[in-house]
Amino acid sequence: MPTTLFQHVQHRHGSGLAEVLQAVAAAAVQVEQALRTAGLADVLGTAGYENIQGEQQQKLDVIANEILSAAIGKLPTVAGLVSEEDDAPVVFAARPDAPYVVLFDPLDGSSNLDVNVNVGTIVSVQTRPAGTDAVTAALQAGSQQTAALYVNYGPSTLLVYTAGRGVHSFTLSSSEFVLAAEDLRMPASGPYYSLNEGNLAESDPAYTSAVAGLRDGSLTGDRHGSRYVGSFIADFHRTLLKGGIFLYPPTKKNPHGKLRLLYEASPLSFVAEQAGGAATDGQERILDLLPAEPHVRTPLVIGSRVEVSAVSDMLAGSPRE
Ligand code: AHM
Ligand code: MG
């Protein structure tokens, strides 16, 4: 009998967390169904309004947000949630003492949907310290995360999670995620660098030097090829399995980087570290950053230990925004 996500999490981390991750997984199955028939159901394209971060919401962003928010909102163990698509955290006033808060990007990379490229759902689970409210609990450092999870909607739909004891991968088989691989390890170094090279001209020159060094082999001793999908989950998942490095530097347009700390950078940094990789904002470990507000952004350098360490050394002397 294949092992389900619920069984795996329950066995290793107990029923409380298993119920939360299972609710997310069940919501992801619904999102996957919406994505699979998107071209037929008139749900591609923009919804006609922007989220609080000034980005065009796609119709499927809105649909995925509703599906995840409803599933998580039903859990008696969840005190509040933070979604990329909501202006403010949602606090469940009826259960201020519930143990968990859940932070998520319902559909990351959604601007790629019209061209049928992989998209993802990214989730972070924090435990509420006794005596704190849900918003304070949501604003803890990433090092305090109880669990991190992402779903990669692609040729196969995969769910990858960590709750601090390794990284495990599940494949969607009809309506259930079943265990595909336990204890994934990110190679110590790998063949690819991944970033939007169009942004380099308006980034810190130290990033240009680091990328040149990755390309010509002078940074780590190995030459790196280029891979960039422009959908974070697709670029991260490749980096997890094959090794290498993903970078989203600060730019003129996004002086603090583009990716959001709490529900993009932080959960994937937890996964990366649990798989033997590393993640930094160029100066500090991502998991040590303390968010000032729910939608805060961060520069991100994430991937194999060798590449992240070499790029960090190169960035160490560069000025901070
Ligand atoms: P989104 O959360 O609005 O979808 O934006 C995040 C996405 C990531 O998936 C991806 O890594 C990045 O934006 C790509 O940005 P760019 O198009 O600037 O390269
Ligand atoms: Mg996103």
Number of strands: 15
CATH class label of the largest domain: Alpha Beta
Order of helices and strands: HHEEHEEEEHEEEEEHEHEHEEH
Number of domains: 2
Distance between the termini: 53 Å
Q: What portion of residues belong to β-strands?
A: 15-25%
What's the name of the CATH homologous superfamily of the largest domain?
Fructose-1,6-Bisphosphatase, subunit A, domain 1
Q: List unreliable stretches of 5+ residues.
A: none
Helix-and-strand structural type: alpha+beta
Ligand inventory reads:
2,5-anhydro-1,6-di-O-phosphono-D-mannitol, magnesium ion
Task: Describe the protein in words.
The chain is α+β, with helices and mostly antiparallel strands and 321 residues long. The chain folds into 2 domains: 177 residues, Fructose-1,6-Bisphosphatase, Chain A, domain 1 (2-Layer Sandwich); 124 residues, D-Maltodextrin-Binding Protein, domain 2 (3-Layer(aba) Sandwich), CATH 3.40.190.80. It is built from 8 helices and 15 strands. It has an 8-stranded mixed sheet, sandwiched between helices. Strands 12-11-13-15-14 form a 5-stranded mixed sheet, sandwiched between helices. Strands 1-2 form a two-stranded antiparallel sheet. Strand 9 and strand 10 form a beta hairpin. The longest helix has 22 residues. The protein is globular. The mean pLDDT is 94. The protein binds 2,5-anhydro-1,6-di-O-phosphono-D-mannitol (AHM) and magnesium ion (MG). Magnesium ion binds next to strand 5. The site of 2,5-anhydro-1,6-di-O-phosphono-D-mannitol (AHM) has 12 residues, from strand 5.
